Amino acid sequence: GFSWTLPDHPKLPKGKPLAVVVLDGWGEANPDEYNCIHVAQTPVMDSLKNGAPEKWRLVKAHGTAVGLPSDDDMGNSEVGHNALGAGRIFAQGAKLVDQALASGKIYEGDGFNYIKESFENATLHLIGLLSDGGVHSRLDQLQLLLKGASERGAKRIRVHILTDGRDVLDGSSVGFVETLENDLSQLREKGIDARIASGGGRMYVTMDRYENDWDVVKRGWDAQVLGEAPYKFKSALEAVKTLRAEPNANDQYLPPFVIVDDSGNAVGPVLDGDAVVTINFRADRMVMLAKALEYADFDKFDRVRVPKIRYAGMLQYDGELKLPSRYLVSPPEIERTSGEYLVKNGIRTFACSETVKFGHVTFFWNGNRSGYFDETKEEYVEIPSDSGITFNVAPKMKALEIAEKARDAILSGKFDQVRVNLPNGDMVGHTGDIKATVVACKAADEAVKIILDAVEQVGGIYLVTADHGNAEDMVKRNKSGKPLLDKSGGIQILTSHTLQPVPVAIGGPGLHPGVKFRTDIQTPGLANVAATVMNLHGFEAPADYEPTLIEVAEN
Ligand code: 3PG
Ligand code: CO
């Protein structure tokens, strides 16, 4: 029968403290001026790379290697940390929604049948990120859902858009709005009253995460549910074009707006009896709105009016909280994660990041599960992030504080595994500010040094890796790798993640001298890290985990 007990590794000892460091958004790419990791002074990461070749290697962090639909899909933190923690590749939200739409099963489930009850007499609201980034949502899935819902009786539809510019190029919002408006006008020709009702930039409206700043969600609530916003427009295209023309405006941070009719009334507030679907499949930036929509008791902001709605998520965002209770597509069933195994085998675990990445090394690492497996063996520490700023103005973020917490945890002797996420490369990379991203990379490297020094002091082991690329490439390129220019001759800044591989480096005085990376695994990915971590703790990984990256030489 099934057992949580992991077999002892035949050669590797137990009891060596292990630091697991995830550099968020730290990929490997050719060195040039748009590679901020290359430009920045990163002596520690450089020394790992230029050290023993059997202790540093690259692994895949994008596409099918992390459960995404295709190898054209860039990596992201959700799927990256899921793979790192779970040690296996699960079909992820993007793919599961694709499959459910293609087979039509999405329309047969409890979630759709539930919201359908509102179609006859009320409005269907679709709220989510409008882009083809494929990280949180995808435009083509929204298009299919609009078509499917209208064919199944939805008569009045309101779409509440969040503009992207973070997983896709800044400025692309205009094209996505045009495409959506075109689809909606085709629905109107068929007699369906379908319109965009509100909008705003994803980083300023709705899509906060890990409860960093509830004001973001409130701004969305006011526009989407109450129909109130500082800006009112007759059409979303006019809204996005006008608001983008403001100085320093960008897609990520557009202010909230509502679409109004000729008498100035919002065209799509959420009313009693309506159905609401949040169309994002990814959890971290939708779960706060899900709470506001679903919970009767809610004190994070004044909702003013709480309509009685039928609400479903595209996916269930939190399996532990069962939130939301209704959803259109079942999430990946990520169970038996390495974190759970290791805790059950006595590994005392410390995990830390700052707010904006805290859930990455806890919730995502543990298979989209919040909370501890065993409170007596785990401690998760969240360092409050700066809120209300874009991280290019404070690119060092809390890297130092995270490293100091990790150092203290390592030196305390109370933990077998100390796991951190250093957010800088990613969070600053997303701003598109190249200078600031260079500062960010340096700060992350300095944090790694603090952690490795502590590992050295206690005779421990380290494993340093990343979840996906970002800071190593800040420019959009053509097929031959040349930077693409925009209409005015400037480079096209890449705010998004990349398709690049990421490093895995191992070492430390506690590492058995015979340990080296295997050469017999052709194209390993992030999912191979979990078995590696288990080995470094002195255990064999479960048989169905992706194979370990390491082997132990005889002498
Ligand atoms: C975000 O949510 O900030 C981006 O869409 C993806 O970034 P992450 O996957 O690194 O969190
Ligand atoms: Co990112």
Question: What would you note in describing this structure?
Answer:
The protein has 555 residues and is an alpha/beta fold. It has 2 domains: 10-23 and 38-52 and 63-90 and 334-455 and 520-555, Alkaline Phosphatase, subunit A; 94-329, 3-Layer(aba) Sandwich (2,3-Bisphosphoglycerate-independent phosphoglycerate mutase, substrate-binding domain), CATH 3.40.1450. 31% of the residues lie in helices and 16% in strands. The chain has an 8-stranded mixed sheet with strand order 6-7-5-4-3-8-9-10, sandwiched between helices. A 7-stranded mixed sheet has the order 2-15-14-1-13-11-12, with helices on both faces. Strand 4 (156-163), helix 7 (173-189) and strand 5 (193-201) form a beta-alpha-beta unit. Helix 6 (139-151) packs parallel to helix 7. The longest helix has 25 residues, at 434-458. The protein is globular, with a radius of gyration of 24 Å. The model has no long low-confidence stretch (mean pLDDT 97). The structure holds 3-phosphoglyceric acid (3PG) and cobalt (II) ion. The site of 3-phosphoglyceric acid has 12 residues, from helix 3. Its main location: cytoplasm. Keywords: Cytoplasm, Glycolysis, Isomerase, Manganese, Metal-binding. Its cofactor is Mn(2+). Pathway: Carbohydrate degradation; glycolysis; pyruvate from D-glyceraldehyde 3-phosphate: step 3/5. The active site is at 77 (phosphoserine intermediate).
